[in-house]
Design goal:
alpha/beta; Metallo-beta-lactamase, Chain A; eight-stranded mixed β-sheet; 10 helices; 16 strands; 26% helix; binds zinc ion; RibonucZ/Hydroxyglut_hydro; hydrolase activity; Metallo-B-lactamas; Hydrolase
Length: 270
């Protein structure tokens, strides 16, 4: 069984600043533990849902924007038992690992050196992660090195479309995934450059010959937050026939023979 637990379903500058929706990314428990896009609050939200950062094997970071990588260093400290043990794998965009003209790398040399392996792959590159295989997928975003993935598992594929504008190749890279997690920043009639909106997702999944069993919308920006992501999810589900959910902190998808979802209760803070 594969378990996907969301530590937030928000994204974009204003949702992040206000924490109108949590921005912690998500955690995949497969044969190895993979943490994806640790935005601000990832560490705190993890403990709220009893996920221990010391158990992370692979940290995947799609790009070097704060809402996706803010908590990267502190998670590496978790993965490496407080930098006492060389452990864990980072798979990040080139901007995350090397920085770019506007950004330093998302992690210091101290943190990068603490990891067993650091990769800044290209679309099409493949990684064997325990019994699963991760295929790196492309994206067109304001960070031009942004990457997503398709994780091949014995329970079907789990695909992640990170921040990107719509482009036709998204269809072939993600077609046939059983669970499709897509960053849908904007609601209907409110498209902005470099991000997906509701209509883009409808167009994309309608064009897929093999459709996902479940679609999960994440990375809701402020306009999506106010428009109501559940209304947008209902619209997508009505016009595509695909079961569509909205990610939020504590939302868990269990992928076995069947796919089931539940919202976990947060642990009490001391
Ligand atoms: Zn971004």
């Amino acid at each position: 069984m594969i378990e996907i637990t969301f530590l937030g379903g928000g994204g974009g500058r204003f949702v992040t600043i206000t924490q109108a929706r949590a921005t912690g990314g998500f955690f995949i428990k497969a044969s190895k533990n993979i943490y994806v896009d640790p935005g601000p609050g990832a560490l705190v939200r993890m403990w709220r849902y009893k996920i221990d950062p010391r158990k992370i094997d692979v940290l995947f970071i799609s790009h070097r924007h704060t809402d996706h990588c803010n908590d990267a260093e502190v998670l590496v400290e978790g993965m490496t038992y407080g930098v006492t043990k060389k452990r864990g794998i980072l798979i990040g965009s080139k901007s995350v690992v090397h920085g770019d003209e506007n950004h330093t790398p998302a992690l210091s040399k101290y943190h990068l050196d603490a990891l067993e392996e650091v990769h800044a792959p290209n679309p099409g590159d493949r990684f064997k992660i325990g019994q699963e295989e991760m295929i790196i997928t492309p994206s067109i975003h304001s960070d031009p090195t942004t990457i997503g993935f398709r994780l091949k598992t014995s329970y079907g594929d789990i695909s992640y479309i990170p921040d990107t504008q719509y482009f036709d190749e998204l269809i072939e890279w993600h077609e046939g995934a059983r669970v499709l997690i897509a960053s849908v920043t904007r609601p209907r009639d409110m498209r902005i450059p470099y991000h997906l909106c509701t209509e883009d997702v409808v167009y994309m999944v309608k064009a897929m010959k093999e459709k996902p069993e479940v679609l999960i919308m994440t990375h809701a920006g402020m306009k999506m937050h106010f428009a109501g992501p559940y209304k947008e999810a209902e619209f997508i589900q009505n016009v595509t026939g695909i079961k569509t959910y909205v990610a939020k902190e504590g939302f868990r998808v269990t992928v076995g023979k069947e796919i089931s979802v539940k919202t976990l209760r947060p642990a009490r803070f001391v």
